[in-house]
Amino acid sequence: MHDFFSPVSEFIPSGHPEAVTASDSVLDAARLMRDSNIGCVFVEEAGRLAGIFTERDFLIRVAGESVDPAATTVGEVMTANPESLKPIDEIAWAIHLMAVGGFRNVPVVDDEKRPVGIVSSHDVIDFLSELFEGAMHDDDEVDDWHEIGGG
Amino acid sequence: MAYTVPGDEIGRLASISVSELDKTGCLAMFEGATAERAVTEMSAQRRGAVVAVDVDGRVCGIFTERDVLLKTLDDSDWRSKPLSQVMTAAPVTVHEDDSIVDALAKMSEGHFRHLPVVDGESKPLATISIRTVLHYVAEHFPDEVHNLPPSPSLEARRLYGG
After folding, report:
1. B130 touches chain A (CB under 8 A)
2. Chain B residue with the nearest C-alpha to that of A126
3. Which of A32, A69, B8, B61 fits as disulfide partner to B87, beta carbons 3.0 to 4.6 Å?
4. Are strands B28-30 and B49-53 parallel, antiparallel or unpaired?
C-alpha cells in the first residue's frame, strides 16, 4: 500500500517514456500521443528533458489558434523547461505540483535531467482512491469490532 | 515510514458533497454547436472540457482535450461538425449530492479527468476536474501536501527534514 511518502518511482511504468525532438512536427507528436494512448510526450535534446508537449498545448496553441500541425514544430508550441521530480521524491510532491501548479503530468528525471518516466494525474487519482477506500474499509472493520464488543 | 491517513479526515471527505467543490460553474453547449466554437471557448476559458446538452438541457455528452486531439488531427472538416459528432456520448456523471470520495472512485475506475455534476433532472450544474479534486484533497492534508514549498530542492526534499 502506498502512502504520501512513497517515492514517485513506484508510480511510473518501466521503460523509456515516449519522446520527440523540438524540430519534429506537431502532427507527428500528436499522432504518437493518439496512437500510444498517452496525454503528453517528452521533448528531448541530446537525451535530456527540454520540454513536454501535452493535450492542453494542443488545445490552446494548435487547435485553438488554428495553426497547421503539419507546418508547426513541437518546439514552437511545447511547454519548455517543465517542473520535474526525481525518482526519490515523495508522491506528495506530485500532488502538490498538480494541485497548486495545475500540472497534469509531472516528468521524472535523473540527476542529469534524463527522462525516467512521468507521473500523471490518473496515477495520483488511482493512489488516492485506493488510499481512501482502504481507510474507509478499515473504519468499517473497527465499527464491526465495536458492535461485537458492545453486544 | 509507517503512516496512516487520519480517519476523521477520511470521514469528512466521505461526507462532503461534490457541489461544495466547484465555484466556477461549467462550460455547457447545445450538442448542435460547432466543434470550432467549442474549441474556441475551451481555449479562451482555459477549460479542459465542454459539457454537451440536448434540446431539453440535459447532459448528453462531453467533449474534452483528449477528444480535440483524437477528432481533429486527421479530419480537415472538424471545425464545422456539430458537437454531437465529435463528443463522447452519455458520459459518466456525478450527482450534486455525491461525495468527493464517490467522484474519486469514478475518476479512477473510468480514467476520467472531468465529470459533469448534474441535478435530479440530469441538467448540468458544474464540471469537476482532477485538479479541483486534488486541490481540495491537498487543502485537507496540509502537513502532507499543501504546505510544501513551490518546488522540491535538495535542502527541503524530505517532507519532515529526516
Report:
1. yes
2. B108
3. B61
4. parallel
pTM listed for this prediction? 0.84
| Chain A residues with CB-CB distance to B108 below 8 A | 122, 125-126, 128-130
pLDDT tens-digit profile of A53-108?
999 999 999 999 989 999 999 999 999 999 999 999 999 999 989 988 889 999 99
The 3 state secondary structure assigned to A12-78 is CCCCCCCEECCCCEHHHHHHHHHHCCCCEEEEEECCEEEEEEEHHHHHHHHHCCCCCHHHCEHHHHC
Chain A: closest CA distance from residue B57 (Å): 26
Size of interface A-B (CB pairs under 8 A): 139
CA distance B139 to chain A (A): 9
CA atoms within 13 A on the CB side of B134: 30
- Whether the ipTM is more than 0.95: the answer is no
How many secondary structure helices (H) and strands (E) does chain A include? 5, 6
User: Which chain B residues are within 8 Å of A96, Cβ to Cβ?
Assistant: 138, 145-146, 148
